[in-house]
Design brief:
The complex is a heterodimer of chains A (about 350) and B (about 800). Chain A is about 40% helix and about 20% strand. Chain A is α+β, with helices and mostly antiparallel strands and about 350 residues long. Chain A folds into two domains: about 90 residues; about 230 residues, 2-Layer Sandwich (BirA Bifunctional Protein, domain 2), CATH 3.30.930.10. In chain A, helix 1 packs antiparallel against helix 2 and helix 1 packs parallel to helix 4. The radius of gyration of chain A is 42 Å and the shape is rod-shaped. Chain B has six domains: about 70 residues, Phenylalanyl-tRNA Synthetase, Chain B, domain 1, CATH 3.30.56; about 120 residues, Beta Barrel (OB fold (Dihydrolipoamide Acetyltransferase, E2P)), CATH 2.40.50; about 200 residues, Phenylalanyl-trna Synthetase, Chain B, domain 3 (Phenylalanyl-tRNA Synthetase, Chain B, domain 3, 3-Layer(bba) Sandwich); about 60 residues, Phenylalanyl-tRNA Synthetase, Chain B, domain 1 (2-Layer Sandwich), CATH 3.30.56.10; about 200 residues, Bira Bifunctional Protein, Domain 2 (BirA Bifunctional Protein, domain 2, 2-Layer Sandwich); about 90 residues, Ferrodoxin-fold anticodon-binding domain (Alpha-Beta Plaits, 2-Layer Sandwich). In chain B, a hairpin with a 2-residue loop joins strand 35 and strand 36. The chains are: A alpha+beta (about 350), B alpha+beta (about 800). At the A-B interface, helix 5, strand 1, strand 2, strand 4 and strand 5 of A face helix 7, helix 10, helix 12, helix 13 and strand 27 of B.
């Protein structure tokens, strides 16, 4: 009996090892474990076994059955693995082929930087004010301490709609508009389009963008102006940015200043980018002129403030090394999709 | 303003200061230096040489061979073709560009052979040294520059001609007319380096006689001429001015002419006070009348141009005619000529704005008008005229007559302001003592006495405490002001809901594959023709620029569409296979008066979301983008209604966009005729959505809907209807009829063609039915479907497909 069992086991092992697919495996299972299989036949012959040996023989048969089942399971898994491996091999693709393009549009480069700037100032407690581009001469000039025929008008060649209406040459008029509408504390930036009668070339555009900033409150000092602009410059240009403030003149601020950053290419040594000066002019700023406060209905004895104006195009051109301002308004997708 | 640094030594001392340091310090104290350059930078290795011999070149009839002593051991040989070099030239001293020398314009000189004869360099003309005839009036116009007798030999030519100097070029701001002068900049220089500063008072000896016997001055319009000062010089001898004066003028970029003209220019540069010299003999009755010009009067100015004057302009007249445009330019009728014998020096103060308007109207901005229009110190006229007369005597150019005519209608008492050191500290964020502040102010010639600051007359820009604070700050150093962050009252920084909605729209457009565009706000009126607007379309009425750069930039747009199509056309022309653009562009809708844009009323400005695309999206994909924008904004009840009469769009492929029944925009296929005008072919799609109306429809409330607990039943229905029945109407009918268990309805097929009768279409919808509290029974679903079908049958004559 034992020998018989060993024989079956060996035969099962041989046949299973040779079974290369699910069908051959099933045939082997039927041959050995099926209802008419060899082990079942042995079990059926148990009645011929002496009663006292039956438990032992039974146990032996069950052991062999268990072993065959284990072998079947293993072989089944091996076959499945092989089939899967085969399938996966057949499914191999050239992963270096290019991906299918997901078309996602781009923000205009001017707005990329403008949005960064807005986020910086929002974080510093500023809100964003907007106002008209076709503007009264009063807001663009008169209320900014630039009366008619003031020589400061020369630096801003103006497009006129009528004697009293202009295309704004600067966003500074927003200072007055905001102060007329809102009482201190005021903390705003006012980005927008401005217009000057400059013929179009690589560095001039009759239309460009400025960002005006205005803070009015009790006890605002020039040192606060320096503080906020230095912080801004470091956020926009990096923590190691070096800035300097030098005296300048604007009719609507006093004292006035221009802020330069140390040239990020040559670090102050002088190079073509900074025209050998080592510094790049970034913005104009100053303490709001008391006359402007008065004209806007704010008492300069009680309140003081600072204002600043940033040229967006120049900032963006420096940032992305764009050498032609006209590209901003041509809307060539080969340009827009670079950013 | 160009300032030769050597000139500073007349008033202060900058010894030990390098040009680079000068540049940096003056820039930081408020006088922006554009650059400091070496006057003789372009001239190298050019020395003076004495002509020892001149012989004819054996092989040429015009070349000469010269032996020149250039201060070296041996004379050098130079071949020249200059017509003024003859054997008579022996003993002359001239500039010699040696072997390996450089001349202005980057010209390099090396030794060579001219027709077989060695030439070790070149003798130079004044033109070759970058000079004008006025700089070297003794020179011959066409030939080698022979220098005055006594000029040392072997000397660097830059030293001989006053080119061994640095010049600082300043950008002077419009408030500092006083810095448009050597004295003004010397004062700033001295204050910056804290060095002594002194201007000598001019001394005029004069020869007796009395100016009042010769002439009189009457200022009629004192509002435009607060002060007019004049002196008379007779027995004038017109000749070149001396080298030192010529050299200084040249360094400042002013061409030397003759002694009298040079003196007026010199004084203008030195004091900042423009001067004018009249030929006395040309003044009828010896009278000067300062008055507004009369309409119809005219004058020929010194530059030979004829000008008609108006009563907005101030004129200097004699008894019967204008002889100068005040503050702008003198008249040809009283010009200083070589035979001029008696000269009137005018040193006057004119009203800045009037000079500015006049100069602009006449199209002639001059050195003088540029100074007057900034507003000059009336106190300047006297020292300036005295300085001019002092120079006349110094140069021996004439005899100064006793007496000064000074018509002064202005109070010359110095202005004062209270001295408020605490307020200044508070404004600047500094903690300077009163003494420190006083010291800074005194450096700039302010005086501080009895709690008052006495403002020097030349500082016409100082009017308030903040002006003084700036003076203190720049002397102390802007860079030394600390950086502080104002705490103050807490203010929340935030975007407005509208600004957030704009960001949302921008993001959705980009997610849909549209690049953000920006286009000019001003357009040509022809743009409206391009997009097919009728000639009488009221939208053509636009805010118009009076002085545009050209027709292409002449009106403020009332639509962004043509700019968008132009951008698409640019891409198409550059062979970009596809372009999808959006712009949040402003339009400017004017207020209308008498059928025209009212130029005195500000137009209404509104942003319009404008999209344009070609080469990528189908009509319905594009419509999907618009629907996505509305969905992302949480705008509901959006309808699309066919629009057949918009001239910019295809009549069969255009829809007005309605929200709650109100039109908020338009989209569709651009009319092929319009597209063709832009050189665009194929389907071009565009949309225009004014943001204000769209944003008004935003539902700001977003509430959670519980996820369904019970399953939905999905049923399909397909019907035959007439071709022209709009799908949107059928959907609306189903939504109305199917009852509250209808969760949603989706069109999934529209079919025409085989198996469908002519003029009909098959439309198929999928209905999702669900109740929140139970699983629906078949009966309930059947009922809803029957109701939907009945509505389609009733409203559209629909027939259920089998």
């Amino acid at each position: 009996m034992k020998e018989k069992l060993q024989g079956i086991l060996q035969a099962a092992k041989d046949q299973l090892a040779a079974a290369g697919d699910a069908r051959a495996l099933d045939e082997a299972r039927v041959r050995f474990l099926g209802k008419k299989g060899e082990l079942t036949a042995l079990l059926k012959g148990m009645k011929d076994v002496a009663a006292e040996e039956r438990p032992v023989v039974g146990q032996l048969i069950n052991d062999v059955r268990a072993e065959i089942e284990t072998i079947i399971d293993k072989q089944k898994e091996a076959i499945e693995q092989a089939a899967l491996a085969h399938k996966l091999a057949a499914e191999t693709i050239d992963v270096t082929l290019p991906g299918e393009e997901v078309v996602i549009g781009k923000k205009h480069p001017l707005n990329i930087v403008l949005d960064e700037l807005k986020e910086i100032f929002i974080g510093l407690g500023f809100s964003i004010a907007e106002g008209p581009e076709v503007e009264l001469d009063h807001y663009n000039f008169e209320a900014l301490n630039i009366p008619k025929d003031h020589p400061a008008r020369d630096t801003q060649d103006t497009f006129y709609i009528s004697d009293n209406v202009v295309l704004r040459t600067q966003t500074s008029g927003m200072q007055v508009r905001v102060m007329e509408q809102k009482k201190p504390p005021i903390r705003i930036i006012a980005p927008g389009r401005v217009y000057r009668s400059d013929a179009v070339d690589a560095t001039h555009s009759p239309l460009f963008h400025q960002i005006e900033g205005l803070v009015v409150d009790k006890g605002i000092r020039m040192s606060d102006l320096k503080g906020i602009l230095e912080l801004f410059a470091k956020k926009l240009y990096g923590e190691d940015t070096v800035v300097r403030f030098r005296p300048h003149h604007f009719p609507f601020t006093e004292p006035s200043a221009e802020m330069d950053i140390q040239c990020y290419r040559c670090h102050g040594a002088g190079c073509p980018l900074c025209k050998g000066e080592g510094w790049i002019e970034i913005l104009g700023c100053g303490m709001v002129h008391p006359k402007v406060l008065e004209m806007s209905g704010i008492d300069p004895e009680e309140y003081s403030g600072y204002a600043f104006g940033i040229g967006l195009e120049r900032t963006v051109m420096g940032r992305f090394k764009i050498d032609d301002i006209r590209l901003f308004y041509e809307n060539d997708v080969r340009f827009l999709e670079q950013f | 303003m160009k300032l030769p640094l050597s000139w500073l030594s007349d008033y202060t001392d900058i010894s030990g200061v390098t040009p680079k340091e000068y540049d940096a310090r003056l820039t930081m104290s408020g006088s922006k230096v554009e650059e400091v350059y070496y006057l003789g930078a372009e001239i190298e290795n050019v020395v003076t040489g004495r002509v020892l011999s001149v012989v004819d070149h054996p092989d040429s009839d015009h070349l000469k061979i010269c032996q020149i002593d250039v201060g070296q051991d041996e004379p050098i040989q130079i071949v020249t073709g200059a017509p003024n070099v003859t054997p008579d030239s022996v003993g002359e001293i001239c500039p010699v560009a040696l072997h390996k020398s450089t001349l202005p314009g980057g010209v390099k000189i090396t030794k060579g052979k001219l027709r077989g004869e060695v030439s070790n360099g070149m003798m130079c003309s004044f033109q070759e040294l970058g000079l004008t005839h006025g700089c070297v009036p003794y020179a011959c116009e066409n030939g080698i520059l022979f220098l005055p007798e006594g000029t040392p030999v072997g000397e660097d030519i830059k030293k001989v001609l006053g080119l061994d100097d640095y010049v600082a070029d300043f950008e002077i701001t419009s408030n500092r007319a006083d810095c448009f002068s050597v004295i003004g900049l010397a004062r700033e220089t001295a204050a910056t380096f804290d060095r002594p500063f002194k201007v000598k008072e001019p001394v005029v000896k004069s020869i007796g006689d009395d100016i009042n016997k010769y002439m009189s001055v009457e200022v009629v319009d004192t509002d435009l001429c607060p002060r007019y000062t004049a002196r008379l010089v007779k027995n004038i001898k017109i000749e070149p001015s001396p080298a030192w004066m010529r050299e200084r003028l040249h360094a400042c970029g002013v061409r030397p002419i003759n002694n009298i003209v040079d003196i007026t220019n010199y004084v203008m540069l030195e004091y900042g006070q423009p001067m004018h010299a009249f030929d006395y003999s040309c003044l009828s009755d010896g009278k000067i009348v300062v008055r507004r010009a009369r309409n119809g009067e005219s004058i020929q100015t010194l530059d030979g141009q004829d000008h008609d004057l108006t009563d907005k302009m101030l004129a200097i007249c004699d008894n019967d005619k204008p002889v100068a445009v005040a503050g702008v330019m003198g008249g040809a009728n009283s010009e200083i000529e070589d035979d001029t014998k008696t000269v009137v020096f005018e040193s006057a103060c004119f009203h800045g704005a009037t000079v500015r308007v006049t100069a602009k109207a006449l199209g002639m901005r001059t050195e003088a008008s540029g100074r007057f229009e900034k507003g000059l110190d009336p106190s300047l006229t006297m020292p300036a005229v005295q300085r001019a007369c002092e120079l006349v005597e110094m140069l021996g150019a004439g005899e100064v007559v006793d007496g000064i005519i000074d018509a002064c209608a202005v109070d010359l008492t110095p202005k004062t302001l209270p001295f408020e050191p605490d307020k200044m500290n508070a404004l600047l964020g500094l903690d300077l003592s009163a003494d420190e502040q006083k010291a800074y102010l005194e450096r700039l010639e302010f005086r501080v006495e009895d709690g008052k600051v006495i403002i020097p007359s030349f500082r016409v820009d100082i009017a308030r405490m903040c002006d003084l604070a700036e003076e203190v700050a720049r002397m102390y150093g802007y860079d030394k002001i600390p950086t502080t962050l104002y705490a103050g009252e807490m203010v929340q920084g935030e975007y407005t809901p509208k600004q957030m909605a704009e960001q949302n729209v921008s993001l959705t457009c980009r997610e849909a594959g549209f690049d953000e565009a920006m286009s000019h706000s001003f357009i040509s009126p022809k743009f409206y023709d391009m997009i097919g607007w009728a000639q009488d379309d009221p939208r053509r009425i636009s805010t118009t620029i009076l002085n545009p750069l050209g027709e292409d930039f002449s009106i403020m747009r009332t639509t962004v569409l043509p700019s968008m199509l132009q951008s698409l056309a640019h891409n198409h022309a550059h062979r970009n296979p596809t372009a999808s653009l959006f712009e949040l562009g402003t339009i400017y809708t004017p207020s209308i008066k008498d059928g025209k844009a009212d130029p005195d009323v500000l137009p209404h400005e509104e942003k319009v979301l404008t999209l344009g695309t070609y080469g990528r999206l189908s009509f319905f994909q594009f419509k999907g983008v618009i629907e996505a924008i509305c969905r992302e904004l949480n705008v509901k009840n959006v309808q699309f209604v066919p629009e057949k009469s918009n001239p910019s769009y295809h009549p069969g492929r255009c829809a007005n966009i309605l929200i709650d029944g109100q039109p908020v925009g338009v989209f569709g296929t651009v009319h092929p005729t319009v597209a063709a005008r832009y050189g665009l072919s194929g389907e071009v799609l565009a949309a225009e959505l004014p943001l204000d109306k769209l944003f008004d429809a935003i539902d700001l409330v977003k509430l959670y809907h519980p996820l369904p607990k019970f399953p939905a039943s999905t049923r399909d229905i397909a019907v035959l209807v007439d071709d022209e029945v709009p799908a949107a109407s059928m959907q609306a009918a189903i939504e109305k009829a199917a009852g509250h268990i209808l969760e949603n309805v989706k069109l999934f097929d529209v079919y025409k063609g085989k198996g469908i009768p002519e003029g009909k279409k098959s439309v198929a919808y999928s209905l999702s039915l669900r109740a929140p509290d139970r699983t629906l029974t078949d009966e309930e679903c059947d009922k809803a479907m029957k109701q939907a079908l009945a509505a389609l049958e009733k409203d559209f004559g629909a027939v259920l497909r089998g």
